[in-house]
Amino acid sequence: MQFDQLLQYSLSGLSTGAIYALIGIGFSIIYNATGIINFAQGEFVMLGGMLTLFFLETLQLPLWAAIPCAVGVSTACGFLFERLAIRPLRQPTPINLVIITIAGSILIRGIAMLVWDKDTHAIPPFSGEEPIAIAGATILPQHLWILGITLIIVAINRFYFYHTISGKAMRACAYNRRAAGLVGIDVKRMVLFSFMISSAMGSVAGIIVAPLTMTSYDVGIMLGLKGFCAAIIGGMSSGLATVVGGLVLGVLESLGAGLVSSGYKDAIAFIILLLILIIRPQGLFGKAESERV
Amino acid sequence: MSFLKRPIVLFLLFAAFVLLFPLLLGGGYLMNVLVFMGVNTMLAIALNLLLGYAGQISLGHAGFFGLGAYLSGVLTVTYSWNPWLAMPLAAVVVGLAAFLIGFPILKLKGHYLAMATLGLGIIIYIVFNETVELTGGPSGLSGIPSLDLFGITFDSDLENYYLIWSFVLVTMLLALNLANSRVGRALRSVHDSEVAARVMGVNARLLKVQVFALSAVICSVAGSLYAHTMTFIAPASFGFNFSVELLTMVVVGGLGSIYGSFLGAALLTMLPELLREAKDYDIIVYGVILMLMVIFMPGGLVRGVPDLFRKLTGKKGRSNA
Fold first, then answer.
1. A286 occurs within a structural domain
2. A238-254: pLDDT as tens digits
3. What is the domain extent for residue A217?
4. Which of residues 109-148 of A touch B (CB under 8 A)?
5. What is the pLDDT of residues B20-44, one digit of tens each?
6. What percent of chain B has pLDDT over 70?
7. Among the listed ranges A27-31, A135-139, B84-88, which one has the minimum average pLDDT value?
8. 3 state DSSP class of B142
9. At what angle do helices B83-105 and B61-77 cross, to 10 degrees?
10. Residue A154 belongs to a domain with what CATH number?
């Protein structure tokens, strides 16, 4: 095994891992605020990519304008999703919530297929395609964009949750929704916020990865599931643990695809997912909790 | 009409209806759809035993269905086994596998269980695609022999109809009996509160795993039947989308109702036929139906329709079906 080959796989794994991390944080934010695993999370990732393409090609906007527009529309979709699917639910049992978010994801995916098409599309890289050489391995400028933007978002996220009133209110909801309601926090509004924030983050992930992997109406399923896997490794934390989870998953997957077999690349993430769920359901870094009856 | 409420009478009426239906229909293309409907009914009942009675979700049941189909397919095509030998072997293998994987997986609850079973289903799907030498990969496995019994070869739609639906009726009888037995009541107690069930002396953990394995066995048999009636299988029929479709059938029909599973399977099998004009867009219709059902009729058709009827006619009271 060549060292530079190993380095190459790891580097490209890091950037996909960063994407998984962003999606995973989106999962965790909603889970912490509401106890819901949003199976439609991946669809917002898809919306990010497809909407950027729409603003770029159909409306002929420049890239710097198309991206915020795409994030804005995706966030609006997150808002609508919470209002139209989650809030009207009369019996919010876990099984009903799983089913309704799956239904939502099918619907969003179907509408995307109806509005656009079934082809895969490419978004131009943000700044050129000149590969950069690092110690015998090469990376694309887009990889740097991905890592940079992920870093910025994770930092903003941290700031929001620890230094703003609304972020602190959201954390209060995560600890105890009832108590949060008693001290005057509008829990329903926080739930809505959590859906908007995570759809915005998901769409950013979808936009920055699109120049590397192409985008189509059905990219959301796999990306969403792997983001969930990252969140599980991180113990559903909306912070650093999930970022580490995403990066670990990205690198393992990339190494597995390069060294073992590229056909089983997607299976690797799910085997890791199953192992973690079975052996350490509280995540790699979490402490075990006992069940409350 | 009170004798109609006796389960056995209802079942016999249903069975008679199923057996006489082809005479009313007189053959034609619809027979083929009805064969599919039978397979789907078996699968929906299997998932319902797990989800509706024991309250444990699975998003990987298409994987067990596929395992049954592929085990039967590969054993009969590549190794020239007798189909009647391959089917029970497949069922035993799938049941054992589900039993073993069930212990660690069913420790999980709710969302986590959904994700774990989903992961399991996707891993199985990827294996179908990647083991090209064994399964033919994405392009599928063809030339699977039809079943035969007492000199009859089940290769026409009518023969397949009777073959499949006799299996469906047996499955139904089994499920109905199970639901009304001590085990069925124990399952429902696990559904309502696992802790309370354990306090009452129900071995919840073992019971969940057993019903998971039973459910997988029914899926496997349905898979074998599917392989032998279609004579061609490809991984695309056993992916995540199909698991979701099965879930839709069970939810639309009504959780915890065996006849509900039949209704759900019947509706969702007919739907693509009715929506033929809308070809690719049927997936949107699934999404809308699933969403509306969960929001407005969380009890499924078997409970929602009588409730709606009662509301419309202005009578009070709740259905306990």
1. no
2. 778 888 989 999 999 88
3. 12-128+140-279
4. 109-111, 113-114, 118
5. 777 777 667 778 888 889 999 999 9
6. 93
7. A135-139
8. strand
9. 150
10. 1.10.3470
Contact A184/B at CB under 8 A? no
B 134-193 near A (Cβ less than 8 A): none
The burial of A62, by beta-carbon neighbours within 10 Å (0-12 exposed, 13-18 middle, 19 or more buried), is given as exposed
Tell me, rounded to whole angstroms, the distance of Cα A266 from its chain centroid: 16
Amino acid (1-letter code) at residue B94: V
Find the largest Cα–Cα distance for chain B: 63
Per-residue pLDDT, A233: 84
The residue in chain B having the minimum alpha-carbon distance to the alpha carbon of residue A279 is B104
B231 within 8 A of B156, measured Cβ to Cβ: no
Nearest to A104 among B120, B126, B291 (CB): B291
DSSP-H helix ranges across chain A? 3-34, 41-53, 63-81, 94-115, 141-163, 165-175, 177-182, 187-213, 220-233, 240-259, 265-279
Set of chain B residues whose Cβ sits within 8 Å of the Cβ of A39: 114
Question: Would you give the end-to-end CA distance of chain A in angstroms?
Answer: 52
A287: amino acid identity, one letter: K
Q: Hey, what are A143's tokens?
A: 């990889």
Nearest residue in chain A measured CA to CA from B52: A95
Mean pLDDT of A204-225: 86
CA distance A205 to A291: 34
Q: How far apart are CA B6 and CA B1, in angstroms?
A: 10
Q: Which residues of A touch B110 (CB under 8 A)?
A: 94-95, 98
pLDDT at B190: 79
Range in A235-249, B57-71, B99-113, B185-199 with the lowest mean pLDDT: B185-199
Fill in the DSSP letter of residue A215.
B
Neighbours of A83 (CB within 10 A): 12
Q: Is residue A2 assigned to a domain?
A: no
CA torsion sign for B109, A41, A229, A222 is: positive
Q: Is B195 on the interface with A (CB under 8 A)?
A: yes
Domain boundaries in chain B? Answer: 25-237
User: What Å distances lie between residue A80 and A75, A88, A108, A180, B161, CA to CA?
Assistant: 9, 12, 11, 24, 45
Q: How many CA atoms lie within 13 A of B315 on its CB side?
A: 9
Q: Assess A94–B contact: CB distance below 8 Å, yes or no.
A: yes
- What is the number of domains present in chain A? 1
The sign of the CA dihedral A223, A228, A234, A240 is positive
Average pLDDT over chain B reads 83
Nearest to A99, CA basis, from A30, A23, A40, A34:
A40
**What ipTM was reported for this prediction?**
0.80
